[in-house]
Amino acid sequence: MSQFNNATVQKQANIYYDGKVTSRAVTLEDGLKVTLGIMLPGVYEFGTEGPETMEILSGKLKVLLPGADSWLDIDGTETFHVPGNSKFSLEIFTVTDYCCSYPKNL
């Protein structure tokens, strides 16, 4: 899906790592919550409360998912899932555009 229709956008940005990672919260008509954001080059670690689906829309990066022995290389588009109550690491090489959704059951 390339766009969201009938959605509510939170005006205030979520800002992490001194502004190198930003996102805006969006609530869809069916109540699903997503964030749309940009990550600048750097190394980051994030924690999850619930499960997350991360859709990389563009960028060059690698991700280390919980329990994985090796990094997943991404150049362009990719989708990956992160379990709830876990941590994952990202190394961003180019400006990366992403959409993160928070499904109730993954």
From TrEMBL:
Pfam hit, one: Ppnp
Superkingdom assignment: Bacteria
Its EC number(s): 2.4.2.1, 2.4.2.2
Recorded GO CC terms: cytosol
Keyword line: Glycosyltransferase, Transferase
GO terms, molecular function: guanosine phosphorylase activity; purine-nucleoside phosphorylase activity; thymidine phosphorylase activity; uridine phosphorylase activity
Catalytic activity: adenosine + phosphate = alpha-D-ribose 1-phosphate + adenine; guanosine + phosphate = alpha-D-ribose 1-phosphate + guanine; xanthosine + phosphate = alpha-D-ribose 1-phosphate + xanthine; uridine + phosphate = alpha-D-ribose 1-phosphate + uracil
Role of this protein: Catalyzes the phosphorolysis of diverse nucleosides, yielding D-ribose 1-phosphate and the respective free bases. Can use uridine, adenosine, guanosine, cytidine, thymidine, inosine and xanthosine as substrates. Also catalyzes the reverse reactions.
Similarity remark: Belongs to the nucleoside phosphorylase PpnP family.
HAMAP family for the chain: Nucleos_phosphorylase_PpnP
Protein name (database record): Pyrimidine/purine nucleoside phosphorylase
Organism per entry: Paenibacillus stellifer
Lineage: Bacteria, Bacillati, Bacillota, Bacilli, Bacillales
This protein's encoding gene: ppnP
